[in-house]
Amino acid sequence: MTNEVHHPLTDFVEYPLDEMRFRAETNLAELRRRHSIRKFSDRAVPREIIEHCILTAASAPSGANHQPWHFVAISSPEVKAAIRREAEALEQSFYAGRAGQEWLDALKPLGTNANKAYLETAPWLIAVFSQKRGGVAEGDDKTNYYVHESVGIATGFLIQALHHAGLGTLTHTPKPMSFLSKICDRDNDVDRPYMLIVAGYPAEDATIPDHALKKKTLEQVASFI
Ligand code: IYR
């Protein structure tokens, strides 16, 4: 027995097979053009674009529909500078040895280092937070479910939305990330930093490492049984 209200599914769109094929192919082509970039232009991006992309992320499926996430969109130069300062301090010790040799070797083809100028140059940083507790309604304090899965999907939606809108993106995960709660003025017991997404136009001389083009084949990533 259910006392939940259900609605008919009126917004599902079915496409003829040819169109379905076309849509699947063009979506693949569009996402294959998404590359993590580390050199951003300082050109402004209107806030309303970021708002739409965050709402796209927030449309993601989540455990019991609790939507266990919070997004802090940062364009303030002072806040970006503070994030850069903290992140670079962490990255310096990471690259100086905290990462361990195997990890540093894995990063070599990417050419990354402790300099994170893009954290100040890019017009937007979006800090994604996950919430262990919450619920659907404002002020709820219930257990959230599948928090990492849910926030991971939402972050994927966010990256896809930003790319689809025509922006360059980078995922950034300094370790530990707790400084983000403080800088973003979030209660670290409620909002756990999950990932930082850098968004903006690529710089004219932005590059991607050869490594980035080496995507696994269908045979490597999938089995059909
Ligand atoms: N957070 C560091 C290191 C880093 C780690 C991985 I795994 C990457 O794919 C890229 C970078 C940094 O941002 O440099």
UniProtKB/TrEMBL annotation:
Nitroreductase domain boundaries = 31-201
A Pfam family of this chain = Nitroreductase
What are the record keywords, sorted?
A: Flavoprotein, FMN, Oxidoreductase
Tell me where on the tree of life, at the top rank, the source sits.
Bacteria
Provide the protein name.
Nitroreductase family protein
Biological source species: Shewanella jiangmenensis
